[in-house]
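Study this one:
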Amino acid sequence: SFQGWHIGHERPYMERNSFHNARKTSYMKGFSSVNVFVIFYKSRICCVSKMEQHNAHIIPRRLEMPLSGGPSAITFQVNGVEYQHTVPATETLAKFLRNRLGLTGLKTGCGEGECGACTVLIDDQAVNSCLVLAFQVEGMRITTIEGLENADGTLSALQQAFIDHGAVQCGYCIPGMVIASEGLLRRNPTPSDAEIRRTLAGNICRCTGFLNIVKAVKSVASAGARAVPE
């Protein structure tokens, strides 16, 4: 459900999902009320780092559902190119980018904002595109993994660092990892290891640990290289 997801809402969507997960856990048979409380409490703690990475307050104004509930005409930029489209009120940004614009570097995973595979930048802030409705990006700038390459078609410093440090295995989570890291480097060109790990807390890699991924991001920060040149 997208109910309550808009700017000005006091509870970020990552926190909302943690409530949802705790509620699902309570349905499991054989769990006492004490066990359920412990799981719920841990869920609340674990969601903090995700909330700080994917902040639901990144869109600078409140955007309401069209009163008619029908399609909306929107104008926005994706990877530096302006688009005008009419979108259904219920179409997510992730589906729109993949199915209509063919930007399949963006991956879809859980569809609940938990795995981070669908991460994009909206006005330079990392957001789970599966939790954003397409009509909400009116007038905004979106960057997907396809938009990070240099003007000559070569990989950006950040993308190359992921290859050089062996941070890629199956590759499914990598676009989201790179985009989340890109958002961090745009905010803070020299992040600490702790800041990098906190930023990637909302992105799940099921193949391995995050050691080489952190090393890749750190190498770009240490070298003073911008992920995307001016």
Notes: Residues 1-63 have pLDDT under 50 and may be disordered. DSSP finds seven helices and five strands in the chain. The helical segments are 13-26, 33-53, 93-100, 157-164, 174-187, 193-199, 211-223.
